[in-house]
Amino acid sequence: MAPKKKKATKEEILQKKREAERKRYAKIKNDPQKREELREKERLKYLKKKEKGTRKLVENMTPREHRDAKKKWKQHCTKYRSKKKVLANITNSFIKENTPDSDVSASCQMEVAERNNKNKEKMLRYKIKKKKDEEIKELKRKVLKYKKRLSRLKKSTNPKPTDTPNTKLQKMADNPESRKDLVKKALFGEVLKQQIEDNFSEMKTVKEKRLLTKMVTGKIVDKYKLWRMKNTGVISYKRIKKAKIGHRLERRKKISDKCVRAVVNFYEDDSNSRLGAGKKEFITRKSERKQKRYMLDSLLGLYEKFKLEKRNFTLSYQTFCKLRPFWIVMPKVDKRDTCLCINHANIDLKVSALFNAKILNYNSYQKLLQELCCDRYNEKCLSRDCQKCFNNNPFYKEFNNMRRINYKKWISEKADFIDPKSKKTRRVTKYVKKSFDVKPRDLIIELQDELETFLRHERNIVHQFSAIKKLKSMLTEEDALIHMDFSENYITKYSQEIQAFHFGGSRTQISLHTVVVYLKDTTKSYCTISTNVSHSPAAIWAHLNPIFNALPPQIKHLHFLSDGPVTQYRNKTMFYIMATKISKRFPYVQNFTWNYTESGHGKGAPDGVGATCKRTADALVATGGDVENLEKFVEAIEKRCPAISLSIIPDEAIEEMSTEIDREVTKMKTFVGTLKVHQVTGKFFNPTGIKSNSTEIVMKTLSCFCDNDYCVHFNIGKIIYEDKPKLNVEDVYTDSESDNEAGPSSAVVQPFKTGDYIVVKLLSKTNMEYRYVSIIDKIDEEDGEIRVTFLKLCDNKGQLFRYDADDVSDITMDQVVQKLSNPNIVLKGNRIFYKFDLPVDVFEKK
Question: Are strands 715-722 and 800-812 parallel, antiparallel or unpaired?
């Protein structure tokens, strides 16, 4: 009977299972495919546990769970390291037991070879060190040799120094034979000291005393410290110290000529000072006479601006003030300005009222601009395009709105004027300075409403000044800038006048039109005078004719600069003269620009020319001469001011020009927004170099002198004047007696075809001309019409357009301005754009 098998215990069963698992895992690990499958299975199991939340991350554990996990990790790491250590010990003991013993003789040989190598290296180091020591010793010997030679050379070349005063006296005191000489020297020193003291006490001026102190002070006196001797009053420590400081200050006063010129040019810039226009506004220093210029800001404000603009110069505020030219002066109350800008004046009055009410911390528009802008001379800041300061507003303190504020303001009023002679009533406009009593909040709201207009006004001033300054620096031999202005009329005078003449109406008025012409290398001044005191466009053109005659023949680009009164330079008559008269007067001029300064800020160089002429004529009258007519005025100026060219404009020339313009008044066109215009540009030649039959002038809100022929900066509109030639009868009708009867005309070749890109002009109800790019869809030859689809502009350069399928219209052939080359197709996402190689001159209605 076979013995019964004993039942395996629980521990034995578990042991068998573990062995089976080990074998299974070993089999899987030996098979690469099964090993990868097992890894993927384990990875998925881990992710499932992670999704269910049974396997938590550290960030999801509670503090207690985290502590328990760290304990388990620590146990696992300890167990893993102990296993590794036991395995390493077993491996080392196995290698040691199975490795045969090495031969003793071989190890001894290795030790001997190693010792020999060390000895060789030691000997080599010793030799190198010994060689270096010998070289150092030799060099030291040479240094001593050359030092000795140098000392001998110095002794032979330099003279033996003379004995110092102290050494001389010691030698004389030691030698009994020279003691008599010692007494004489002591007597000489005492006599000289007494005489200096007597002379010093008799001197009355500080300058003489300083001169004597300089004569008896120096290095030797400083060496022996003679100021310690109490028996002398001339040589003292304080006087010697002052003399030394004075020398140092003289050396520090030196400033480079380049820096001085930069400061003077900065003061004379039109954006920092304005030229006095009055004939008495001059100043003389050291026989040099200059026309006064009045600062537009305080010295401190100008100094801050100088530091920003001229960063390459480092100047203190005191030095900046000292370098101010004598003709740059601060405006005074008794020399008040009667040509103030109404915008600045009204803002100043409001800010001053708020300052007096302790609502603002400043009382001038300059400080207001400094608070609103990062840089008050930066166009981006003034246009509110700066990302740093576009939200800046004045800081208002707390105030009681029930306490009213009184402020003044310049306003225009309509008033009835009764002529004392004709007794007729006329309606006139008067400007008065009125007082208003308002609540603080109402005044603040009014100031806030005017800030945008004020900042735009200030931006225009800065831009126009900088644009003209840039133009002057870019002038070439083919460019000319003509800066003009009317000066105040001069009244004829006699050196001695009877009462009836002085208080009566017997005086003659002389109109002065002053011009400064800027060429590439020269600047010339002109003054045209006339007894006709009209300042109309016709008079302006008549006054400019002598200046045109003096221009070089190679001029191709004309630039004009003036202020912008609508009765003189900025009106539809002047626009017509620009478009039609310049090309006739200058056949080879390709283009022109007429630039206007901002309203209230038109003072410039021509005002100085006018003041010089009137002041010179008055000086002649003051010395006994008479200036009773045009000829005497010209004679007085030509002799004393040869740099100013004078010309007399006869009344007939002005009247002839007025008549000619009156005949062409129907051709003139008005422009809506004339007061916004600060530049008028025109071209007389098309891109192919052929003179155009029509002249197109472009209106701009600001001046721009970029090199782009298709400049669209600041454009606000255009005016086109077509030059239609007169037709003769022979050109229209054929001769009935001619042998060659007029036959049928040949077919006209159409210049366009379907699919061409063209520029089309459209006129609004106010005669405003707009230009659009379009594509031809259909041509109706019988009616002479073209059906087009318009393209819309998508960039600021005038090159990128998109197709607008809903914007379709029928136009005539006369409305086609230009044919364009085929554009390139540009894809942006699902959108299609058309890009032309050159900018297209378009003006779309917004």
Answer: unpaired
Residue 293 — left, alpha, or beta (φ > 0 → left; ψ -120 to 50 → alpha)?
A: beta
Is residue 296 within 8 A of residue 272, CB to CB? The reply is yes
Phi, then psi, of 291 in degrees rounded to 5: -75, 135
- Angstrom CA distances, 445 to 317, 390, 522, 747, stand at 38, 18, 51, 71
Angle of the 179-202 helix axis to the 206-215 helix axis, nearest 10: 160
Alpha carbon distance 755, 785 (integer Å): 15
Contact 772, 759 (CB under 8 A): yes
Q: What is the mean pLDDT of residues 309-325?
A: 89
As given in the structure block, the two tokens for residue 664 are: 């062409």
Return the H-helix or E-strand segment holding 730: helix 729-732
Band of residue 744 on the pLDDT scale cut at 50, 70, 90: very low
Cα-flanking dihedrals φ and ψ of residue 610, to 5°? -65, -40
pLDDT at 248: 46
> What is the domain partition of the chain in residue ranges?
173-252, 257-329, 342-459, 475-721, 748-835
pLDDT at 230: 54
Q: Which residues, including other chains, have CB under 8 Å from residue 13's CB and lie 6 or more apart?
A: none
pLDDT confidence of residue 502: 66
pLDDT digits (tens, 9 = 90+) for 569-587: 999 999 999 988 888 888 8
Task: Inform me whether the pLDDT recorded for 741 exceeds 50.
Answer: no
Task: Give residue 620's pLDDT.
Answer: 87
CB atoms within 10 A of CB 642: 8
Class of residue 278 by CB neighbours under 10 A (exposed 0-12, middle 13-18, buried 19+): middle
Burial of 390 (0-12, 13-18, 19+ CB in 10 A): middle
668, 674, 679, 683: CA torsion to nearest 10: -20
Cα distance between residue 71 and residue 51, in whole Å: 24
Would you say domain 748-835 falls under CATH 2.30.30?
yes
The dihedral built from the CA positions of residue 597, 601, 605 and 607, taken in this order, carries a sign that is positive
**Whether 277 contacts 512, CB under 8 Å:** no
Q: How far apart are CA 621 and CA 604, in angstroms?
A: 27
HEC profile for 430-466? EEEEEEEEECHHHHHHHHHHHHHHHHHHHHHHHHHHH
What is the average pLDDT across 741-756?
Answer: 55
Exposure letters 255-274 (e unless 16+ CB within 10 A, then b) = eeeebeebbeebbebbbbbb
Select the highest-mean-pLDDT range: 123-137, 577-591, 770-784: 123-137
pLDDT at residue 769 is higher than 80 = yes
Which residues fall within 8 angstroms of residue 341, CB to CB, at 6 or more apart?
A: 457, 599, 600, 601
Total-model pTM: 0.53
pLDDT at 103: 53
State the SS3 of 118-180. Answer: HHHHHHHHHHHHHHHHHHHHHHHHHHHHHHHHHHHHHHHHCCCCCCCHHHHHHHHHHCHHHHH
Close Cβ partners of 291 (under 8 Å, ≥ 6 residues apart): 275, 276, 281, 282, 327, 608, 611, 612
Among 148, 141, 230, 239, residue whose Cα is nearest residue 193: 230
Under 8 Å between Cβ of 702 and 830 = no
Q: Are 657 and 542 in contact (CB under 8 A)?
A: yes
Do residues 388 and 395 touch, judged by C-beta distance below 8 A? no
- Give yes or no for a contact between 406 and 437, defined as CB atoms under 8 angstroms apart: yes
pLDDT band at 146 (very low <50, low <70, confident <90, very high): very high
Share of the chain above pLDDT 90, in %: 23
Helix (H, G, I), strand (E, B) or coil at 409: strand
Q: Has residue 99 got a pLDDT over 80?
A: no
Compute the distance between CA of residue 562 and CA of residue 597 in angstroms, rounded to an integer: 6
Does residue 516 have a pLDDT over 60?
yes
What mean pLDDT do residues 114-133 have? 91
